[in-house]
């Protein structure tokens, strides 16, 4: 009778001591499928949201009434002091008040905004999507003061991983900019301009690095301007921002630090800079279509104090 012999099982040998563990290969970057960068003129937009809120002094009331889904009218009353130029270090203010009437037309491919003020100024803005990638933008300001009216037209083209813009303005102003994504998080760009009326020209370069948690930007121009900004997203509701501005022609240096805090019913923004200026801006949502606004700015060096409050009705 034959005896069945079970073959011995082979045991897996443990990894040798000191052997290198398996390392996951980093995901390869598809450089033919990079994201489209933001426009060159908006590379500092996250920092500007925190550091440059729309501060004002006095009282303002804004009312917007929608006539239909695309057309709306707005009314604004602004009362507060206006600063006038002075040879002395003290700030001279005179009380002013004016009314502003506006009309807005918003369509998926066409947006028109117009404002007229009681002092005779007229502001107009236009944005028209001529195609999926080509956009026409324009803005103009007309006033009765000589040589103070101006207008500008922008032609924007959006590619798969780049953007370019051409500018035409009065006073023989010509400009062009280009920004290109070179990696999933890094984009580089440059700009040139020519102001024929003043016989001035310039060239500039910019870099932007962004992730889900931070945005860092740098910009330098032949006019003497150097601008650096950094924004850190602490959480979904809190962001911290800082910037550094330097002009190597005039040797002016300014550094500032700001915050942006979004609560359930309000949004609080503020900043402090190296010139001794502290500012805060609060937007409180009281009800649907009803917002209360508080604005405060203190310039300790100039001993200039500004406080404003307002009410916004309508969306």
Characterization of the model:
This is Mitochondrial import receptor subunit TOM40-1. It is found in: Mitochondrion outer membrane. One of its GO terms (biological process) is monoatomic ion transport. The protein starts with 44 loop residues before the first helix and ends with a strand. The chain has 315 residues and is mainly beta. It has a 19-stranded mixed beta barrel. It has one helix at residues 45-51; strands spanning 58-66, 71-84, 92-106, 110-117, 122-129, 134-142, 150-158, 162-169, 173-181, 186-195, 200-210, 214-221, 225-233, 238-247, 252-262, 266-273, 277-287, 290-299, 304-313. The chain is globular. 2% of the residues lie in helices and 59% in strands.
Q: Calculate the terminal CA-CA distance, rounded to whole Å.
A: 96 Å
Q: Work out the helix count.
A: 1
Averaged pLDDT, please? 89
| Overall number of strands | 19
Fraction in beta strands? over 45%
The SS-based structural class is mainly beta
List the helices and strands and how they pair.
Blueprint: H1 45-51, E1 58-66, E2 71-84, E3 92-106, E4 110-117, E5 122-129, E6 134-142, E7 150-158, E8 162-169, E9 173-181, E10 186-195, E11 200-210, E12 214-221, E13 225-233, E14 238-247, E15 252-262, E16 266-273, E17 277-287, E18 290-299, E19 304-313
Parallel strand pairs: 1-19
Antiparallel strand pairs: 1-2, 2-3, 3-4, 4-5, 5-6, 6-7, 7-8, 8-9, 9-10, 10-11, 11-12, 12-13, 13-14, 14-15, 15-16, 16-17, 17-18, 18-19
């Amino acid at each position: 009778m034959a005896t069945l012999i079970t073959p011995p099982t082979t045991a897996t040998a443990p990894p040798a001591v000191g052997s290198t563990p398996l390392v996951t290969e980093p995901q390869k970057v598809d450089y033919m499928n990079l994201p489209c960068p933001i426009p060159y003129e908006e590379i500092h937009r996250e920092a500007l949201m925190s550091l440059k809120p729309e501060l004002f002094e006095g009282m303002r009331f804004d009312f917007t009434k929608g006539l239909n889904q695309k057309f709306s009218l707005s009314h604004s009353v602004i009362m507060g002091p206006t600063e006038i130029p002075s040879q002395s270090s003290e700030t001279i203010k005179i009380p002013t008040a004016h009314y502003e009437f506006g009309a807005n037309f918003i369509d998926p491919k066409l947006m028109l905004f117009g404002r007229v003020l009681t002092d005779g100024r007229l502001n107009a803005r236009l944005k028209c999507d001529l195609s999926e990638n080509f956009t026409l933008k324009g803005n103009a300001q007309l006033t009765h003061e000589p040589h103070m009216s101006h207008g500008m037209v922008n032609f924007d083209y959006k590619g798969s991983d780049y953007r370019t813009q051409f500018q035409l303005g009065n006073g023989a102003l010509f400009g062009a900019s280009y920004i290109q994504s070179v990696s999933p998080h890094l984009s580089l760009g440059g700009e040139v301009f020519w102001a024929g009326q003043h016989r001035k020209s310039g060239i500039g370069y910019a870099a932007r690095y962004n992730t889900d948690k931070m945005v860092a930007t740098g910009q330098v121009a032949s006019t003497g301007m150097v601008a650096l900004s950094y924004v850190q997203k602490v959480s979904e509701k809190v962001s911290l921002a800082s910037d550094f501005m330097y002009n190597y022609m005039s040797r002016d240096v300014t550094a500032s630090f700001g915050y942006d805090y979004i609560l359930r019913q309000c949004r609080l923004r503020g900043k402090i800079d190296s010139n001794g200026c502290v500012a805060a801006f609060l937007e409180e949502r009281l009800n649907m279509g009803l917002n209360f606004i508080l604005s405060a700015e203190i310039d300790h060096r100039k001993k200039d104090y500004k406080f404003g409050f307002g009410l916004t009705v309508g969306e």
